[in-house]
Amino acid sequence: MAHPLTGADVGTLARVFRDGGGADARLAALGIWAGALARTPFSALERALIARRLPPAEEMPPPVFILGHWRSGTTHLYNLMSRGGFGYVPPLAAGLPWDMFGLARALRPLLERLLPETRYVDRLPVTPTSPQEDEIALANMSPLSFYHGLYFPRAFDRLIDRGVFLDGCGPEEVAAWQARCIYFMRKLLLLQGRRLLIKNPVYTARPAMLRAMFPGAKFIHIHRNPYEVFLSMRHFYDQLLRVMALQEIPSDLDLDATILRVYTRMMERFEAETADWDDPDLVELSYEFLDREPIAALERIHGALGLEGFEAALPAYRAHLDAVRGFRKNTLRGDREAGSMVARRLGPWIAKWGYRSPAPAGAAP
């Protein structure tokens, strides 16, 4: 489990290594391929044994999706709401999506000891029950994933755009991704036995597709000051590329340009596809509201989407908030150039959500 791709199947690995241009980190690549080959018979056995037990896709309770650009508060909301009686993606299911009922269970004590103590990007604790993005799992099941751009940075922008916006993907590729996504959700429902709560920033760029795949699904969109998001994304990419890249990071990689371009496309896509959505299908809130009045924010989400169980979940919600009360956020400093870029490129969303235009320099929480 030294690299996230260790949980991929051989077919996915063959495609992503080809698309990404191969690996410079040969030892890491060897470990990834060895893990995939060794797991192949076990993965096939698991697939055969659980086939009849999987709930039919059309009988799944509609999932609840948490959307929002990376670093907008999606993780905080996910960690909090997962205490409310929902099913979610645990770490071993994210890392070993093909083997969550077999090898993951058999090797659970060992694998849990190998989990990092905290997340690389923000020092949030990682435990065997910490909710994870399903994108991590889908990167091990499909050639279409945002994470492949981090694994193969020589093809960074191309793989990011394929993984987020499905650029250059034909109908068959998209259908194959949808089939793998639904299959993973069915396995997850069997594992958790409860209505699923799924957090994935990538899905902010494809809400209409999710709605078609999962009729009746509910959506929560959380937003944050775009300037703070921009600074946090710089840190996000810097940290994850250091530990996940299987290639030497190109010296001319323009992360600022990527952040601004992806943010703009994602928000434009989200706004266009959800223009006529409202309660009880979609609720929108700010990270600042969640941070300032978390219980009120949760009550609003439950009420707007018609989600049951708020009163029953209150003790668990409050217990989690007490547990993270002393957590210290990253302090990231901007500069005049960053403030100007964000004000110019992301101005429409700063204005829409009522944020102040970024100061030329200063600190961001």
Structure description:
- The chain has 365 residues and is an alpha/beta fold.
- The chain has 18 helices and 6 strands.
- The protein has helices at 10-20, 26-50, 74-81, 91-95, 103-106, 108-114, 134-138, 147-151, 156-165, 171-192, 207-213, 226-244, 255-273, 287-292, 294-305, 310-323, 336-345, 347-352; strands at 64-67, 197-199, 218-223, 282-286, 332-333, 363-364.
- The strands form 2 sheets. It has a 4-stranded parallel β-sheet with strand order 2-1-3-4.
- α12 (226-244) packs across α13 (255-273), α12 packs across α17 (336-345) and α15 packs antiparallel against α16 (310-323).
Quick summary of this structure?
With 365 residues, this protein is of the alpha/beta class.
Question: Any descriptors?
Answer:
single chain; alpha/beta; two-stranded antiparallel sheet; 18 helices; 6 strands; 53% helix; 6% strand; disordered C terminus
